[in-house]
Amino acid sequence: MGSTERTKQYLDYKGITKYKFCNDLGFSNKFLDNSSNMGTDKACKILHYFPELNSEWLLTGNGPMLKENTTDVVVMNTNRKTIDSIHLNQEIPLYDLEAVAGLKELFKSGKPQRVLDTIKIPNLPKCDGAISVTGDSMYPLLKSGDIILYKETEFENIFFGEMYLLSVKLNDWEEYITVKYVQKSDQGQEFVRLVSQNSHHQPKDIHISQISALALIKASIRINTMM
């Protein structure tokens, strides 16, 4: 059995159609018709898109199909001139964002009943809280289900070009919560540009008055579980 056949075995296991697989990864629809081993570039793309997949199994057939339970922690926004102090031990609340009316309300309240769990990771910068990510706007750096750890801040303290969790008001009764790079806008100092990691999402310029809450992303957690 070659790596292409093992890929089809994984797709069957996950219930993913061949069409969706090829469409999502930009492969030819006939890609999986070849039963021989695939090229390294294709294998790397598959492994990047499906991080739970065991690379040794895909390439050689040895070992389990899926990785053992692992947790990847990535510290972000570390290229500033200012250096955050590292906390040897801290307990970071993981909040249920769906239980609050919005990010601003969460920052103001931080009520214990909205805490799903407590995250304990040594040697991280100070964090105020954590939430789970939804959507794919920051893929592949962040994927839906990842956990982001944040530090609340004000717009006056913003570092342009870095990644933020923010709440954007669309009108008097509607807002959305998103994770984006915040950059300077060509429309002037009263505007900022929100930029996604995913190239399929277009940048958007918004007036700074639309930002109702803001937090700098300090780290992300991705849990690779045995399904």
Salient structural properties:
alpha+beta, eight-stranded antiparallel β-sheet, two-stranded antiparallel sheet
Fold and architecture overview:
By secondary structure, this protein is α+β, with helices and mostly antiparallel strands. The protein is about 20% helix and about 30% strand. The protein contains five helices and twelve strands. It has helices at about 5-15, 20-25, 40-50, 55-60, 105-110, and strands spanning about 70-75, 85, 90-95, 115-120, 125, 130, 145-150, 160-170, 175-185, 190-195, 205, 210-225. The strands form three sheets. Strands 1, 6, 7, 8, 9, 10, 11 and 12 form an eight-stranded antiparallel β-sheet that branches. Strand 10 and strand 11 (about 205) form a beta hairpin. The two termini are about 20 Å apart. About 20% of the residues are buried. The model has no long low-confidence stretch (mean pLDDT about 85).
In terms of per-residue confidence, which ranges show pLDDT below 50 for 5 or more consecutive residues? Answer: none
Residue-averaged pLDDT: 86
Euclidean distance between termini CA atoms:
22 Å
Task: Categorize the overall geometry.
Answer: globular
Along the chain, the helix and strand elements come as HHHHEEEHEEEEEEEEE
Helical content band: 10-25%
Strand content: 25-35%
The helix tally amounts to 5
Major beta sheet summary = 8 strands, antiparallel
Strand tally = 12
Global structural class: alpha+beta
The radius of gyration over CA amounts to: 20 Å
